[in-house]
Write a structure and sequence with these properties.
The complex is a heterodimer. Chain A is mostly beta strands. Chain A is built from no helices and 11 strands. Chain B is an all-beta fold. Classes of the chains: A mainly beta, B mainly beta.
């Protein structure tokens, strides 16, 4: 398997523009996580899904952020409108298992977003 | 919610020496403690984990210890090599609480192994 695939790897946009980040899970995994990484705040969990259902979105900064999982293998994170403070590396991760059978998180290589 | 503190934020060691990174957590219900390694330009990758029913775990040059009473856990790397240079993250979660594995990460430790 190719692992978790994220696109784009790099995005530079202007303030106010819509940004869509994409993630393809590892085949067969049932949990999907979106993390944001910055120097100031480290790795922050934004939202996670289990079996396509959003379980916890308490980390989503504000209404400008939204995430969807239209099918078992694909997710999008959308920022509309984008602001300079959204500049960060956004990671998607997937895992298989639940509870005592919890599996490791497999991270993609990240999408580096710069909002000018 | 869970809060994980990690120290030090940077660590420079001579090749061959040992490196120790320490983390504390706040939620006594946490029962799963993984460690991730992040190389430049990559996503974090699991290197070792420990569950609350175990006090210590070892995998070649890497070992983790857990003190549930004090709510702290540590990563030990022995005989460090240049390829150990990376950012290391500790994390904690309660794997029985909810669907999926919601990890709370520490702030990271940048380790530099000098040849």
């Amino acid at each position: 398997d190719a692992g978790v695939i994220q696109s784009p790897r790099h995005e530079v946009t202007e303030m106010g523009q819509e940004v869509t980040l994409r993630c393809k899970l590892i085949s067969g995994h049932n949990s999907l996580f979106w993390y944001r990484q910055t120097m100031m705040r480290g790795l922050e969990l934004l939202i996670y899904f289990n079996n396509n259902v959003p379980i916890d979105d308490s980390g989503m900064p504000e209404d400008r952020f939204s995430a969807k999982m239209p099918n078992a293998s694909f997710s999008t994170l959308k920022i509309q409108p984008s602001e300079p403070r959204d500049s960060a590396v956004y990671f998607c991760a997937s895992s298989l298992g639940q509870g005592l059978n919890t599996g490791e998180l497999f991270f993609g290589e990240g999408s580096r977003l710069t909002v000018l | 919610g869970e809060n994980v503190e990690q120290h030090p934020s940077t660590l420079s060691v001579q090749e061959g020496d040992s490196a120790v990174i320490k983390c504390t957590y706040s939620d006594s219900a946490s029962n799963y403690f993984p460690w991730y390694k992040q190389e430049l330009g990559k996503g974090p990758q699991l290197i070792i984990d420990i569950r609350s029913n175990v006090g210590e775990k070892k995998d070649q040059r890497i070992a983790v210890t857990l003190n549930k009473t004090a709510k702290h856990f540590s990563l030990h790397i022995t005989e460090t090599q240049p390829e150990d240079s990376a950012v290391y993250f500790c994390a904690a979660s309660n794997i029985l609480k909810a669907a999926g594995n919601k990890l709370t990460f520490g702030g990271g430790t940048r380790v530099l192994v000098k040849p």
